[in-house]
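Example (one chain per record):
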Amino acid sequence: MSSASEIRLPFETPIYELESRLAEMETLYANQKAGTEAATLSGESIRRMRRELANLKRTIFANLDPWQTVRVSRHQNRPQSRDYLELVFDRFVELHGDRAIGDDSAIVTGFAHLGDEKVMFVGHQKGRSLAERTACNFGCAHPEGYRKAILKMKMAAKFRLPIVAFIDTPGAYPGIAAEERGQALAIAEALMAMSRIDTPIICLVIGEGGSGGALGIGLGDRIAMLEHSYYSVISPEGCATILWKGAEHAPRAAEALKFTGKDLLRFGIIDDVIPEPLGGAHRDHRSMASAVKSYLIKSLRELADLPREELLQRRYEKFRKIGIFEAGAPAEDRDGPVAGSA
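Predicted structure:
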């Protein structure tokens, strides 16, 4: 895995500069203690610099705008599904193929252990190197990927296994071949299947959550997002191209779409936002994995004892109420006719 320092987002520049200064101070302090240099630095100054660095990270990442959040969600060193499989789950046994076309590397499925619980894992995979990303279509699944997911979810229901789905895609693969093989139908069938599977389903957006490609494995009893991820009906570039005729307007689209965790939590679209380590998940995979594992185990325990009929009814009601809102009565109804009206 490459170092996070190799890929620097523009707004992270002050953090890297301070980290560089801290590293120089720590080297100097170590040399002082070894007696190779004169004492010019105290341990307290090192501790003060560390506190300053932590506060800087906290300030910058607590005030990201939506487009900056998208940049973080796409960071090349951000942990992906296979990273979490190593850090969160045990004894993963991968399952391949859709029994019709082939195996889509953009979606990973298989049996795994989460603590003491056996689960079925389903997740998008983007890949890291160019070869891996090409093989995974940069996380954009074909119809066979969604059909593979459906088959494995139905298998989980057969054996009463909970399902854990990790979402990380800019959208379903948009090519002609995918459309010819029924991309829209495959996603629709996945949604239908997930609405009826009578076993707990937890969905977690770990990076990008774009369009129907994300929703295709995103219908569950718990929907959560990592702090610096996004979940949207369309990618900001796609929205900008449609509305303003150019992808260069993506920051403007990101602001308009209201797709960050705090927005979607307020709208009732998701249930939880999982905080990320200081500086983002790409800086500390293990801390992020620990937080994810704790959330998944807690959620599974809460869902485990629900009767199957109640589980399905709650899931149905959860998605039926999305988009329902109350509007105030027109001024005429509240206060009588509006001045100047007929």
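Caption: The first strand starts at residue 90 and ends at 95.
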